[in-house]
């Protein structure tokens, strides 16, 4: 072993000149340029020339509260993994270990604390997978049974495989026609699947007759899982399924096809852009004392959450939710809109996790702000990974021109740029941009007559809660 060397923060290395500036063409190549194989992206049904967003802003302090925040702060100096990846994996693991003892209700629908997430980087250097090794450490202290028996790695290849791990019992003589053998089934229905090669899952989804997609969708929804084969039907009620995937951006864009985007498979996942946070030539090790403390606190939180019952927002959180709900549920056109379509449900589950970690069934404004900030990072990651294609090549092109003109474009400017397009088509494209919160109309200065209409590009809207927390 080498003598202990001081870690070097990647951001400081940018400043020292050892690495390119974070937003220089060299540094942002991994997410500012199209995938290496544009032909593959087109084959999957996605435009290879989407307008790309810059890398997500770092997680704000609003997300780093309670046990989860303390764990990230403990681990961060000792790992090259992205702090955002460390945080979301901790939250997913907690929600998975809790089981169905804690839940939220929207109308008649129960939302349990199970979640799905995909950590997305350019390559293995993003340290996507190694961050989960650290995440499991406190859970091994807090709930060894869950860590040993209910966390599985790989093998996410069929719906039948998932159901088998959480299957219902089959009593003797239950169905003589199908010749099913008696089966004790699985009493503990918690299942946490870690798929380090999530691209293989996406390839499986394309196979005709494969049941993986509907089982995964129903698993997130908390519905009974079943297959309809005549010879050996499988059934799993009360399953608590959590999924953590790791993939590169090029693989994700190549293999995620339009069917899985349209049917809601993709928007049941949160996508998190991750990259190497620092250089640790000798690796790192979590301080034993700090790990034991987190493990003890986590054990108390898990014990309480497993019998917590319904989790609700308190009055102050309800008021904040009322402010944020319109933004979370706004219509976003195109591919990105399909990916983000379950924003409010993800924020609900995330905020409930933070509350349960604090040992309370009452979601406070702080818990809600934490969930909103995690979602903000996920939404920004989706923009970075998938681009901002609006489903209209003309609207995409118009947005690119608006972003290149800080002074904006008048209708006359737009007409001159796009003389080949009708006025009606231009108006529709502008409406699409305005509806997506990507452009707005302002009135220019008067030159003696009517004030001209001037269109300006806008940055994606930040949440009111996290904007106030991070800048106020």
Tally of strands = 17
| Biggest sheet character | 5 strands, parallel
Portion in helices: 40-55%
Count of domains = 2
Q: Indicate the CATH topology of the largest domain.
A: Rossmann fold
Number of separate helices:
21
Can you give a write-up of this model?
There is one protein chain. With 472 residues, the chain is of the alpha/beta class. Strand 5, helix 8 and strand 6 form a beta-alpha-beta unit. The longest helix has 22 residues. The two termini are 46 Å apart.
Helices and strands in order:
Elements: E1 8-9, H1 10-16, H2 29-32, H3 38-43, H4 66-75, H5 83-98, E2 102-106, E3 109-112, E4 116-121, H6 130-142, H7 144-149, E5 151-153, H8 159-165, E6 190-195, H9 198-205, H10 212-221, E7 225-226, E8 235-236, E9 240-248, H11 249-255, H12 258-262, E10 269-273, E11 278-279, H13 288-305, E12 309-310, E13 312-313, H14 315-328, H15 334-339, H16 343-357, E14 362-363, H17 365-386, H18 393-403, E15 409-410, H19 411-417, H20 423-435, E16 439-443, E17 453-457, H21 464-471
Parallel strand pairs: 2-12, 4-9, 4-10, 5-6, 6-9, 13-14
Antiparallel strand pairs: 1-11, 2-3, 7-8, 15-17, 16-17
Helix pairs in contact: 4-5, 4-13, 5-6, 6-13, 8-10, 14-17, 16-17, 18-20
């Amino acid at each position: 072993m080498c003598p202990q060397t001081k870690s070097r923060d990647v951001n400081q290395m940018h400043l020292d000149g050892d690495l390119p500036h974070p937003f220089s063409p060299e540094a942002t190549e991994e997410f500012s340029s199209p995938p290496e194989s544009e032909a593959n992206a087109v084959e999957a049904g996605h435009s290879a020339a989407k307008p790309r967003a810059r890398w997500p802003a770092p997680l704000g302090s609003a997300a780093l509260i309670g046990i989860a925040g303390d764990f990230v702060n403990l681990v961060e100096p000792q790992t090259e993994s992205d702090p955002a990846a460390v945080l979301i994996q901790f939250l997913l693991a907690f929600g998975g270990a809790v089981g169905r003892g804690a839940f939220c209700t929207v109308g008649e629908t129960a939302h349990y604390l199970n979640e799905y997430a995909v950590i997305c980087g350019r390559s293995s250097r993003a340290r996507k997978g190694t961050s989960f090794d650290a995440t499991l450490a406190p859970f091994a202290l807090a709930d060894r049974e869950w860590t040993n028996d209910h966390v599985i790695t790989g093998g996410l290849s069929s719906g039948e495989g998932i159901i088998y791990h959480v299957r219902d019992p089959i009593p003797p003589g239950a169905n003589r026609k199908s010749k099913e053998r008696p089966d004790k089934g699985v009493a503990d229905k918690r299942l946490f699947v870690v798929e380090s090669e999530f691209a293989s899952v996406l390839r499986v989804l394309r196979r005709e007759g494969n049941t993986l997609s509907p089982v995964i969708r129903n698993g997130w929804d908390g519905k009974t899982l079943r297959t309809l084969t005549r010879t050996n039907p499988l059934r799993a009620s009360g399953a608590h399924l959590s999924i953590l995937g790791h993939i590169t951006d090029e693989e994700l864009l190549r293999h995620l096809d339009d069917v899985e985007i349209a049917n809601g498979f993709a928007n049941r996942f949160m996508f998190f852009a991750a990259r190497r946070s620092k250089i640790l030539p000798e690796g790192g090790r979590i301080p034993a004392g700090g790990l034991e403390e987190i493990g003890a606190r986590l054990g108390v939180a898990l014990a309480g959450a497993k019998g917590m019952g319904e989790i609700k927002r308190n009055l102050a959180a309800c008021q904040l939710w009322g402010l944020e709900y319109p933004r979370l549920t706004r219509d976003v056109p195109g591919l990105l809109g399909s990916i983000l379509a379950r924003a409010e449900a993800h924020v609900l589950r995330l905020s409930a996790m933070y509350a349960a970690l604090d040992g309370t069934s009452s979601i406070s404004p702080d818990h809600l702000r934490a969930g909103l900030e995690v979602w903000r990072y996920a939404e920004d990651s989706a923009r970075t990974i998938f681009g901002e294609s609006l489903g209209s090549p003309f609207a995409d092109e118009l947005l690119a021109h608006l972003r290149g003109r800080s002074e904006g474009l008048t209708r006359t400017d737009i007409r001159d740029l796009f003389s080949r397009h009708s006025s009606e088509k231009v108006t529709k494209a502008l409406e699409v941009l305005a509806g997506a919160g990507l452009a707005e109309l302002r009135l220019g200065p008067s030159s003696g007559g009517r004030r001209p209409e001037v269109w300006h590009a806008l940055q994606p809207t930040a949440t009111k809660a996290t904007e106030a927390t991070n800048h106020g």
